[in-house]
Amino acid sequence: MSSVLAPARLRVPRLLLTGGGTGGHVYPALSVIEEVEGDRLWVGSTGGREEPLVRRAGIAFRGVPTGAVLGRGPVALGRSTVQNVRGVLAAWALVREYRPSVVLATGGYVSVPVVLAARLARVPSAIFLPDVEPGLAVRALSRIANRVACSVETTRRFLPPAKVVPTGYPVRPPLRVWAERPDGRRAGRALLGVADDRPLVLVMGGSTGARSINQAVWAALPRLLAVADVLHLAGGHGIAEARAVRDALPPDDRPHYRPEEYLHDEVGAALAAADLVVARAGASTLGELPAFGLPSILVPGTFAAGHQRHNADHLAGAGAAVRLDDDELRDHLPSTVERLLGDPDRLDAMRRCARALDRPNAARDIARLLADLASGALR
Asked: Fewer CB within 10 Å: C terminus or N terminus of the chain?
């Protein structure tokens, strides 16, 4: 019996990573780290939400001051400016102390002082942009970073084209394992205790939940449960109400509605088991849904300058998703689920379109970009 050996890790002697605010700025970098060999340090926001995720992955973490500028009034903007100046000074001290070979920034305001400090220290840097459209920080940093890796080709129109390197979105290794299992659907359902004889709709609202999605699902449950089982990740803000909704269902319907706060280790099994996903259009949808070949109904959030609309439109334009906005979700969610699940040919076509967007070598390609910058082969 022959075996296929994983490729050797790429040498990056001292990798400094930065990014923060959400898991979407952390998980792609954790996937890239699996492909590189060498020392690594994460610089994030002091007290930021990225710190526990980074420490849980066993990566050294240092915090620097930082402040948001988008949508701030004069007083708040003044405070943020002071914080950002302090952040540049702190980042400069860290860069001089750590002496990185290269910097990888994944977005968020903390990336600004770190990439600026790297530029001042003549350390090469790369940005990974997970979303289709860059935010304010990435737009600014793209002028001084050496390269910008991104999830999709269409990002090139927002940034200096010569610096843009479309790599795809790096899916976390545990999810990639589930995505590539030939028996993934059956094994995922067995692990989750989901029956094989009914479609499964996976509703994902993020770690805290998406209130508009949660409410629309609860309002539509009688119709949804008539055509599918529903695994509902209601988030920390919605799980108590979701359990109360389940307990109020008719006894015959309760086994077909499973609310969970969030799934950590089992999320790969859930994606493998699902037939249709209802979710926000965060950056991870650009990588994870294609990896699993999953049709989706995407509900872009209106926060963070509305960047999720571009993510949803990218997948919908490729034939892999249907976009529903918040203001039409309650009226159209049940009929959209019924229509998709009632049309196997369309679902199959959406699966093929999603799979066609998958970039399984994304993490490796970003790691190669970092190695080339670190060695001086690329400038």
From this structure: N
* Residue 285 belongs to a domain: yes
Q: Are 330 and 368 in contact (CB under 8 A)?
A: no
Our CA angle for 56, 106, 51, nearest 5°, is 25
Q: pTM of the full predicted structure? A: 0.89
Output the domain CATH number for residue 125: 3.40.50.2000
Task: Judge if 296 and 166 occupy the same domain.
Answer: no
Residue-range definition of the domain harbouring residue 274: 173-356
Q: Are residues 276 and 324 in the same domain?
A: yes
User: 142 and 184: one domain?
Assistant: no
Spans of the chain, pLDDT less than 50: 1-3
pLDDT of residue 244: 97
**In the block, which residue shows the tokens 């304010």?**
136
Give the strands of the sheet with 36-45, arranged side by side: 60-64, 36-45, 10-18, 102-105, 125-129, 147-150, 164-166
The reported pLDDT for the residue numbered 286 is: 94
pLDDT computed for residue 2 by the predictor = 41
